[in-house]
Amino acid sequence: MSRQASKDTAVELAVRRLLHAAGLRYRVEYPVPGLPRRRIDVAFPRAKVAVLIDGCFWHGCPQHATHPKANADWWRAKLERNMARDRETTEHLVAAGWAVLRFWEHEAPEDVAVRVAAAVQERRSGLIRGKEQ
């Protein structure tokens, strides 16, 4: 497991490159407020938009996840804990007022970047309207 990239995966880099090219600035590996040792892959803290790009194997993609045959019980428990942690992180962020966008590693970076940019724009326009009132 130590050889698995936990950050700066090819998909994350591609999405970040597209977001930067679109003029969006963000934070990488941003700490989840109130949950130690958890990170947001790409965060827009002022707009409170969290982008998490999940690997199909580690996070249980319904389309592509595989289940190891060796030591199957251990792996099943491990992957279930990962998915439970993902749910807990999402719930915690939503309760704190964040918009949480989760994507699978197999999704096209261009599609991800478009959806993220739209969410950030929507949140930012809400912040601006809120200040005018």
Tell me what the structure shows.
The chain has 133 residues and is an alpha+beta fold. It has a domain of 79 residues: Endonuclease, Chain A (3-Layer(aba) Sandwich), CATH 3.40.960. Helices cover 48% and strands 17% of the residues. The protein contains 4 helices and 4 strands, in the order αβββααβα. Strands 1-2-3-4 form a 4-stranded mixed β-sheet, with helices on both faces. A hairpin with a 4-residue loop joins strand 2 and strand 3. The chain is globular, with a radius of gyration of 16 Å. The model has no long low-confidence stretch (mean pLDDT 88).
Q: How is the topology of this model organized?
A:
Layout: H1 10-21, E1 27-31, E2 39-44, E3 49-54, H2 56-59, H3 72-95, E4 99-104, H4 109-132
Parallel strand pairs: 3-4
Antiparallel strand pairs: 1-2, 2-3
List keywords for this structure.
4 strands, alpha+beta, 133 residues, globular
Shape: globular
Structural class: alpha+beta
Give unreliable regions as ranges: none
Measure the end-to-end span.
51 Å
Radius of gyration: 16 Å
Strand content: 15-25%
> Which whole number gives the mean pLDDT?
88
The CATH class name of the domain at 1-70 and 100-108 reads Alpha Beta
Pattern of helices and strands: HEEEHHEH
Q: Please give the share of residues in helix.
A: 40-55%
Look up the CATH topology of the domain at 1-70 and 100-108: Endonuclease, Chain A
Named CATH architecture of the domain at 1-70 and 100-108: 3-Layer(aba) Sandwich
| Quantity of strands, as a count | 4
* Largest pleated sheet: 4 strands, mixed
Main sheet: strand order: 1-2-3-4
Number of helices: 4
